[in-house]
Amino acid sequence: MSGGDGRLGHVITNPEGELPPPATAPDSPRRPKQPSLLQRPCMYLACFVKSLPVLFISGIVGWSYYAYVIALLLYAMMDNPIEQILCGILYHYFFIMFFWSYGMTIFTPPGRVPDNWHLSRHATAALSSAKSEDEWKETLAKVGSKMGCNTKQRSVQGALRYCEKCECIKPDRAHHCSVCEICILKMDHHCPWVNNCVGFRNYKFFMLFLCYALLYCIFIAATSARYFVRFWSDSLSLGTAKYHIIFVFLVSILFTISIFSLFWYHVYLVTQNRSTLEQFRAPVFEDQAADKEGWSLGSLNNFKEVFGMNPLLWPFPVSTSVGDGLYFPHRRAKQFNNYHSIANSDNRVAETPTRTLVNPIISGAGTISTTQTIHSSHASSVQQSGHISALSGTVSPLSATEVVLDTNGHTRTVPVHPAYHGIDGVAPSEVVIQ
Ligand SMILES: [Zn+2]
Ligand SMILES: [Zn+2]
Q1: Whole-model pTM?
Q2: Which is it for the CA torsion 341, 344, 345, 351, positive or negative?
Q3: For 227-277, how does the pLDDT look when each residue is reduced to its tens digit (9 = 90+)?
Q4: pLDDT in tens, 117-156
Q5: How far does the centroid of ligand 2 lie from the alpha carbon of residue 199, in Å?
Q6: How far apart are the CA of 399 and the centre of ligand 1, in A?
Q7: 191 has catalytic annotation
């Protein structure tokens, strides 16, 4: 879209397709917008309307507690105390886990872009004054590099991803939510049923919320089905409690059907390491290739990235997701076998292996004992020992061990073949004697 002389008669647009913000004085302070007195009542009304789905769900579940515990457990099951106790324990487990997960999904902030990813006034002014798209991209690339924002994802036009509204560089997998009006880390979608965005910090809670909601509904339907049938087949009469049991059975069946497909859809997305947004639009990477599988590390690792390394904590809505939501391991960088990179969430390590030879000791026999450490983004480090002959200058490694992290995040030392020639077949750089 750049003109022949590099100047345009109209406003330059961001490669993401949005208009740039108006130019502001470089030193003007960044102030949050305060709603006017006239806007405030509308804002409160909007907040109330947005929280209606949460109130609706809470009301339904609150009523289901009365229907199940009072009408079914205490009245309908009064002749069978063992069934009463077992159903009472299991029901309260699902009820507590459901509300815990639901509350965590609602009240956990999904993940904001940190302040150091926001452009200064000076930088936004420089972007606004760009005369062509190429100049705009170049300026943004310089600003991003200066800020240390090493993202792997790019816009369709190959530029760094930039949010005009938040005036920030978007970290990988982050998107702007038009409801929350901020950029959300690893945004999945904005969910009206939790009145919150589902993003990096609450995605696990959202998955558990769906899981426990499904289990809660299936449990109620399964244990109330017998009584539901008895009301029609014999003259079991419990007064108004009978209607509560009938309705709680029907409502649980209805919710089971609606949650079932949503839950399994998100299980599929977790195993593919894909957000709902990425399912519809594949992320584009530095090499201009759109790759739906770009973030996938294999099903188990994908699951662990959301649920954490400790299986004991998987069923509980506590924060265990791996990483910081800014950087993610990347299939295209061949990092999928090494969970160390996820735990650190730091893709800024050099991807070219380098060697440093430390502490050479010259022995009386004319040989030098060496220990060298090889760093790469793939393996954590390789310790290699050997002797250098003073006469021939050749390295004769006697033994080499590699410290690696297994998929559980534990370190272990494994032997490396003496004729080690680098990582992944890439020849390491020259040995340097310090
Ligand atoms: Zn934004
Ligand atoms: Zn949102």
Answers
A1: 0.70
A2: negative
A3: 888 877 766 666 788 889 999 999 999 999 999 999 999 999 999 999 999
A4: 999 999 999 999 988 889 999 999 999 999 999 899 999 9
A5: 9
A6: 53
A7: yes
